[in-house]
Amino acid sequence: AAAIARTKLKKASKALADAQAAGHDSADKLALSVAELEQKSTTAAQALADFEKAQGVDPEAQKQAQVAWAKANAAVRKLHKNPPADGDDTSNYEQQLAEAEATLAAAKQHLDSLSES
After folding, report:
1. Residues with Cβ within 8 Å of residue 40, at least 6 apart in sequence
2. Quick check: 93 pLDDT over 80?
3. pLDDT tens, residue by residue, 40-89
4. Backbone phi, psi, residue 55, to 5°
5. Residues 77, 108: Cα–Cα separation, whole Å
6. Where are the alpha helices (DSSP H) in the chain?
7. Distance between CA 31 and CA 16 in Å, rounded?
8. Confidence class of residue 6 from pLDDT cuts 50, 70 and 90?
9. Which listed residue, 38, 70, 72, 77, has the most CB atoms within 10 A of its CB?
10. Quick one: which of 113, 105, 110, 112 has its CA closest to 73?
11. Around Cβ 73, how many Cβ atoms within 10 Å?
């Protein structure tokens, strides 16, 4: 709900700025809509923060774990997309792939442990 409210607020704020720049008469109505959306966004963000606090969730740690997982996943996918050419030495590739997959597994495990708490 907080993300939806932020998105709606962002779009309405842009529409308001465009309307004011163009001198439209409806800018006053848009300004009221933006004010309402700002209030809803603030309320939703506070409700989310209260919920996360009650659940013992650290949103920053969760975000960092998601970023680490995404980077590890991208590294594994990149290696799978670019295997060594026929006749090339595959030992280095296999070692890099094994390390990347181990990193991905560790990142997934860490992310899951944060989600369970």
Report:
1. 5, 8, 9
2. yes
3. 888 888 887 787 677 776 777 888 889 999 999 999 999 999 888 877 77
4. -85, -10
5. 15
6. 2-22, 27-55, 59-81, 91-116
7. 6
8. confident
9. 72
10. 105
11. 15
> What is the C-alpha separation between 52 and 109, in angstroms, rounded?
21
Give the number of other Cβ atoms within 10 Å of residue 34's Cβ: 19
pTM above 0.85? no
DSSP structure string for 77-89: HHHHHSPPPTTS-
CA distance to 23, 60, 106, per residue, from 65 (Å): 46, 9, 10
32's tokens: 């009221």
Distance, in Å, from the CA atom of 49 to the CA atom of 59, rounded to the nearest integer, reads 9
What single-letter DSSP state applies at residue 56?
T
| Token representation of residue 37 | 């959306």
